[in-house]
Amino acid sequence: MVAIAMPSPSGCQHCGIDEREHMGRWKPPVGWHKWTAPTQDQIKTRMRARRAVRITP
Ligand SMILES: [Zn+2]
Hints:
- The protein has helices spanning 19-22, 40-55; strands spanning 25-27, 31-33.
- With 57 residues, it is of the alpha+beta class.
- Bound molecules: zinc ion (ZN).
- Zinc ion (ZN) binds at residues 12, 14-15, 17, 22, 25, 27, 33, 35.
């Protein structure tokens, strides 16, 4: 099984890292940014992606 780095559903809108371990991150194209709440669409998409990974053998 291949380990895929799945962003947490509540992870940053820009990079997917959880708020408590975020601090400051540099990530293109946003550059240096603080944790930003993901949009409802992002949360749904991430949850769906997680479920798809769990089902796939
Ligand atoms: Zn971020």
